[in-house]
Amino acid sequence: MLARRSTQTRLTPSDFHLPTLDLARSLLGKLLVRQLAGQRLSGIIVEVEAYLAKDDPASHSYRGKNRKNAAMFMQAGTLYVYPIHAKHCLNVVSEPVGVGAAILIRALEPWEGIEQMKLHRGTGDLRSLCTGPARLCQSLAIDREHDQINLCASREIWLEAAPNLTAQKTWQVTASPRIGISAAQSTPYRWFVDGHLCVSGLARLHQQRRHWTFGSPHQDS
Fold it and tell me: Domain 13-164 maps to which CATH number in 3.40.50.300, 3.30.310.260, 3.30.930.10, 3.10.300.10?
């Protein structure tokens, strides 16, 4: 899995002005960037889940605004970071102020700063660096302190347009139910890059064998 430089075209507020379900799909292939001690750590988004403001009991905003979920009710493009089992998960707020919807970033393909990610995670296994929302936050050193960051203005964390991808194929997006929730389990609000090695969850949900990355070809292990 080879590191590649991005085009460094940062997403602007207008890029987030989409309905939540449309924005979720559009984030696939984008680059999540973390600037840390003068170094870029980044990953290509390969898996997301949407959580809506209405009629979605799995959403943190379902029972209204509170101190913990306040970021969800801020402007689209805000970062919502919440703790889970002493770890953290990262979400992109996806609707206008006061609405309360967000997109969970579930998995990345590590792209830049991979050696530093390995140190953060305490593993040299590339597939385990950012496969899952808590793992990617640990790899990128993102925690609750980054909650409510504006991704369009921050110098610490932001999103960029897709880098120059080297995969010689047209990648496809597959939808499935969300993972690890107790409510609204059948709602198909999870999208992922089909066949990608870094996607979390069950392999049988893919239409093709999980065997490739954007950076370089890999075999199943």
Answer: 3.10.300.10
- DSSP run (H or E) holding 88: strand 87-93
Whole-structure pTM value = 0.93
- pLDDT single digits (tens) 56-87: 999 999 999 999 999 999 999 999 999 998 89
User: How remote is the C-alpha of 179 from its chain's centroid?
Assistant: 14
Q: Are 75 and 92 in contact (CB under 8 A)?
A: no
Listed residue (107, 116, 102) closest to 151, CA to CA:
102
Residues 6+ apart with CB under 8 A from 71: 78, 79, 80, 81, 93, 102, 147, 148
C-alpha 91/C-alpha 54 separation (Å) is 17
Name, in order, each residue with C-beta under 8 angstroms of 70's C-beta and a sequence gap of 6 or more. Answer: 148
Please state, in angstroms and as integers, the Cα–Cα distance from residue 28 to each residue in 22, 85, 105, following that order: 11, 26, 9
Phi-psi sector, 55: left (phi>0), alpha (psi -120 to 50), beta: left
What is the domain partition of the chain in residue ranges? 13-164
Q: Measured at the alpha carbon of residue 163, what is the angle toward residues 27 and 158, in degrees to the nearest 5?
A: 55
Structure tokens at 70: 């306040």
- Take residue 20 and report the two structure tokens written for it: 């939540």
